[in-house]
Amino acid sequence: MSKKIYLIGIIDVILYFIAVGVFLISKTDMALTIWELMTVFSGPVVLLVLLELSHRLSCPNLNRRAMLAFMACTCALTGVAHIVNITVTRKLMSEGVEVPLYFQIGQWPSVEMAVDYLAWGFFMGLAFVCLGLPIASSDKTTRSLRMISLINGILCLSGFIGALFINENIWYLAPMGYGFGLLILCVMSLRNGRS
After folding, report:
1. Per-residue DSSP letter, 106
2. Which single residue of 15, 102, 114, 148 has CA 20 to 30 Å from 84?
3. How many CB atoms lie within 10 A of CB 183?
């Protein structure tokens, strides 16, 4: 079962970045909707991958429970931000209502973006950190997976803090952690699969 979860994680990350690319190229409402739905769907996928990794890495129960709590926050908040944008904000805009920029996703500062940054930067960052600690292990693969998880968490948290307090462009550190970093974790887990 664990191999399937890692494969689903790989497919999810690839489809997510394809959805992002299609939107950036086409700038259509349909592409944006697909990207947002992929984002909502990706939260539970990341949760499953991290849960599987927590068992493989023999994470302490406290770390596993904290990771689950932080990922539950990620899933709930990202669902709120994107479903509100799809069903309320964009619908109002299509009906000609002038929705202030601070209520639109993709704008900064914006309520919906702050919620999304909180979900994918702060809470997911903490989830990765929980998975990565403690780093020490006699097994080289376990140590490597924990170190990558910790780096992913630091990238997510740095993106969150940077976007809120320094420059919004620092946010792009977070997708390096939850996107490319997760992809690396899944590929390494498949290659060294013994769970």
Report:
1. T
2. 15
3. 17
Q: At residue 7, what is the residue type?
A: L
Going by pLDDT thresholds of 50, 70 and 90, the confidence category of residue 1 is low
CA distance 122 to 65: 17
Q: What is the pLDDT of residues 104-156, one digit of tens each?
A: 888 888 899 999 999 999 999 999 999 998 776 778 888 899 999 999 999 99
CA angle 114, 177, 124 (to 5 degrees): 50
Nearest-5° angle of CA 28, CA 179, CA 23? 5
CA distance 180 to 195: 22
Residue 96, sorted as left (phi over 0), alpha (psi -120 to 50) or beta, turns out to be left
At residue 192, the pLDDT reads 80
Q: Please give the Cα distance from 105 to 85 (Å, whole number).
A: 7
Residue 138 identity (one-letter amino acid): S
> Would you state the structure tokens that stand for residue 57, as one six-digit string?
């890495």
Residue 71 burial (CB < 10 Å; 0-12/13-18/19+)?
A: buried
Find the distance separating the first CA and the last CA of the chain, reported in whole Å: 9
